[in-house]
């Protein structure tokens, strides 16, 4: 198992950052690797989602503990992962922390010693930065959709 953690400061309240991430209807717009999301069912605090992802269709289980924590379980071709997303109040906003517990599968498991930095960068680019940008836009920190698109493009390296 790999254990990877990374964080970003967001100029928005923990409630806003949590709400942006928890709204699965935003994911196709928010996350570049997701084409569409379909709600499969609700099980108490857990939402089961079918994700049309760049790797194909996968199921995700998102468990909500507002406004502090969101757990996301996903199973993909090369790995299974639990992402623990925490939203902590700090002066001026939120410390958004993601900790990934990642079980590599198949031949990828042999690369585990070399993948920590790669996984951390992908978590920042594909999870933290899009949520940060959208939450700051929702809080009025980014003034226009065009500015948000520029911000996301700049942070993704595109």
Q: Bin the strand percentage.
A: 35-45%
Q: Radius of gyration in whole Å, from Cα?
A: 15 Å
Helix content: 25-40%
Give a quick account of the main beta sheet: strands, pairing sense, barrel closure: 7 strands, antiparallel
Question: Which spans have pLDDT < 50 for at least 5 consecutive residues?
Answer: none
Task: Report, as a whole number of angstroms, the end-to-end distance.
Answer: 30 Å
Mean pLDDT: 87
- Identify the overall geometry: globular
Q: What is the ordering of alpha helices and beta strands?
A: EHHEEEEEEHH
- Specify the structural class: alpha+beta
Give me the count of strands.
7
Spatial order of strands in the largest sheet: 1-7-6-5-4-3-2
Helix count?
4
Concise overview:
The protein is α+β, with helices and mostly antiparallel strands and about 160 residues long.
Characterization of the model:
With 158 residues, the chain is an alpha+beta fold. Helix content is 30%, strand content 43%. The chain has helices at 14-22, 27-30, 116-138, 145-156; strands at 2-10, 34-43, 46-53, 56-65, 69-75, 79-90, 93-104. It has a 7-stranded antiparallel beta sheet with strand order 1-7-6-5-4-3-2. The longest helix is centred in the C-terminal third of the chain and has 23 residues, at 116-138. The protein is globular, with a radius of gyration of 15 Å.
């Amino acid at each position: 198992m790999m254990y990877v953690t990374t964080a970003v400061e967001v100029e928005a309240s923990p409630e806003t950052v949590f709400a942006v991430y928890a709204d699965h209807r935003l994911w196709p717009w928010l996350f570049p690797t997701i084409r569409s999301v379909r709600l499969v069912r609700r099980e108490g605090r857990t939402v089961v989602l079918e994700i049309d992802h760049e790797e194909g269709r996968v199921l995700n289980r998102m468990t909500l503990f507002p406004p502090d924590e969101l757990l996301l379980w996903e199973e993909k071709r090369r790995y299974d992962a639990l992402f623990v997303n925490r939203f902590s109040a700090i002066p001026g906003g939120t410390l958004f922390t993601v900790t990934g517990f990642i079980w590599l599968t198949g031949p990828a498991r042999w690369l585990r010693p070399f993948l920590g930095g790669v996984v951390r960068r992908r978590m920042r680019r594909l999870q933290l930065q899009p949520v940060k940008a959208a939450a700051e836009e929702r809080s009025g920190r980014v003034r226009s959709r065009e500015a948000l698109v520029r911000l996301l493009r700049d942070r993704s390296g595109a």
